[in-house]
Amino acid sequence: MERAICRVFTLIDVPAEGRYNDLIIWFLNMAIFFARASFCSRSSGKGAVAQAAYRSGKAFKDNQRNRTFDYSKKTDRHDIHQNILLPIGAPEWMKNSERLWNHVQEFETNLIFKRYKGTHNDPIKREKSLAGRQKALGSAQDSWNQIIALPRELNQAQNIEMLEAYLQKRFVSRGLICDYSIHKDKGNWHAHVAVTLREILPTGNFSEKKITSYKGLESHKDPFCRQQYSETARVLADTMNNSLERAGVLDRVDHRSLEEQGIKRQATIHEGSYARLLEKSGEKSRRCQENRDRKAQDLALYLENPSYLLNDLARQSVVFTEAKIAETIFKLTDGDEHVYQDLSAKVKAVRIPETSRQ
Description:
Elements: E1 4-5, E2 7-8, E3 25-26, E4 35-41, H1 48-56, E5 59-62, E6 67-70, E7 78-85, H2 97-115, H3 123-139, E8 141-149, H4 156-170, E9 178-185, E10 188-196, E11 198-200, E12 206-210, H5 226-246, H6 258-261, H7 273-280, H8 286-304, H9 306-316, E13 320-321, H10 322-333, H11 337-348
Antiparallel strand pairs: 1-13, 2-3, 4-8, 5-6, 7-9, 8-10, 9-10, 11-12
Helix pairs in contact: 1-2, 4-5, 8-9, 10-11
């Protein structure tokens, strides 16, 4: 029977001789941290309404584009839950996702026309204003989006409570609207979140000042700026960990980088399609070569300390089995059978407590 190494209860420094002496390991369905963020820009060809239709799994009409985006017939996913969190002062109709994001786009467009009137008597200034309007209309940002992997250790109700606590603390408390959906694709629970970029005023409408426009000493008011990204990730991780603790789960997630987490493996860089095309044509790509160098250094490290490989997998793998170890070793060795067998034997020699076997 395949040996399954399950959830990490405690992780300690691994001795150089490569043996886990006091390490207690479990790993099935280990909690992981994954969150990816981006802005919804009109330059992508699809706006906030289209993305809202995808999140909701429905057909929404984008009034500005006069186009309907229909995701009601998607069969490769299960839509678990959808909700919109409103700050104080927001009218109840904004709970309607289609109406909300059409209004967001219309509000943004009206402000652009207000700024770039194109009514100057001077033809040069008028032409410049019209060009600025066209550029702004084509590149306007209507929302901040985030995809979040949800802990499998939490049930549906617990994940909803956890997600809404995070959104309330980080965004809704600042007067921003959060529209989210929880999906389950091929067993993977994750949330799609969209956050407005303008605060709701006491009048019930959006502020003409974008929250992303705060700079300098006021930059802390913008939760989407680069300086606040790590804080947003920390708040999410802390909220997840609080929910895991309340649920009696001993797993914890970590938002920090590999180095900050103490993972020995080096992070690879994004190669890109052009680099791979160069390699296929017989040319050498600097990016591909850099990744090969990093993998070679990782391989040398794991050959000297095979327990590091288990330790690194323990911190990141969702399902940690012998098959997963074999797959990792195969990738590290690029299919070199001699090196594969050598590292496999060293990893198998690492003592694992009987309590972690199935």
